[in-house]
Amino acid sequence: MSESAYKYSKVEMEFVVNNIDEFVIPENQEACKLLWSKNIFTIMTNNYENEFGDHDFSWIALSDLSEENQRVFDDLLNASDPRVGMFRMKKIIKIPITPQKGVNTFAEFKKIIDLFEYQDVQKDGYYTIEQFMIENTDCVKRELNPEHLKAIKPNLADFHGDFVAYSKAYEEYISYETAPSEIVTFDETKMTKSFQEYVDESRYAGLFDPDLNRVYRNQMYYDAHMKYKREFGQQKSNRMWYTIIVLWGDNNGNEKNK
């Protein structure tokens, strides 16, 4: 194991899944695997040097959630449930176990994770058609961003000691200054072949789901989506047949009672 183990800032999810011993402390690995099995991917987790400034709890930051799972998280958060929270604009689940070697966290994390449903891969795992074409082809239109052109740094002297007004003007300046200098949009008129051909000629060949018009960002996300699609489709089929059988039984019983 490298000296930098567990101390990376940001790494692609697929790389983390395939090299879990390098990126996730052993005590949190089973909890992360359980989340991943539900297609709830993770952004980061605690190491032995807790970033919160104390060592009272272990935590895992979650990536995008489905609408149903986001509702679960929000309900817990609004109820001030101590097992969820926000940290640096990230959703986290947390348990009152001090991060330390040899103290497994799975049982406590599982109590929270069991509240969430199996979900499809969310938007962090795929491109829409427009996103794919913008990031991977020349079929785009570029325009100057008018918001960026508004970035004029305010001069404190012009506000005659009104620091509140100056602060507001400076915040507005920062929002304009940090806005993209140009707006890039998908231009369908520049396409010279089908969308499928663009995908097939890119490094994302084989990762396109035409039913949803999504291109998955890597094989891991594509496989996770297709697994969900198969299982969800089977569940819908089973429910449909159950409904047919129940209705047939009811009708058959009614016929006999006539």
**Tally of DSSP β-strands:** 9
Class based on secondary structure composition and strand pairing: alpha+beta
Distance between the termini: 76 Å
- The CATH topology of the largest domain, please? Aspartate Aminotransferase, domain 1
Percent helix range: 40-55%
Helix and strand element order? HHHEEHEEHEHEHHEHEEH
| Major beta sheet summary | 4 strands, antiparallel
**Principal-axes shape call:** globular
Tally the helices: what do you get? 10
Mean pLDDT: 85
Strand adjacency order, main sheet: 1-2-4-3
Please give the CATH class of the largest domain: Alpha Beta
**Spans where pLDDT lies below 50 across 5 or more residues:** none
Kindly provide the radius of gyration, computed on alpha-carbon positions and rounded to a whole number of angstroms. 25 Å
Strand content: 5-15%
Q: Architecture of the largest domain, according to CATH?
A: Alpha-Beta Complex
Describe this structure in words.
With 258 residues, the chain is an alpha+beta fold. The chain has two domains: 13-119, Aspartate Aminotransferase, domain 1 (Alpha-Beta Complex); 124-216, no CATH class. It has helices spanning 13-18, 20-23, 26-37, 67-78, 106-113, 129-136, 146-149, 163-177, 195-200, 219-257; strands at residues 42-45, 58-62, 84-87, 90-95, 126-128, 140-144, 182-186, 208-209, 214-216. A four-stranded antiparallel β-sheet has the order 1-2-4-3. The chain has a three-stranded antiparallel β-sheet with strand order 5-9-8. The protein has a two-stranded antiparallel ribbon with strand order 6-7. Helix 3 (26-37) runs parallel beside helix 5. It is globular, with a radius of gyration of 25 Å. The model has no long low-confidence stretch (mean pLDDT 85).
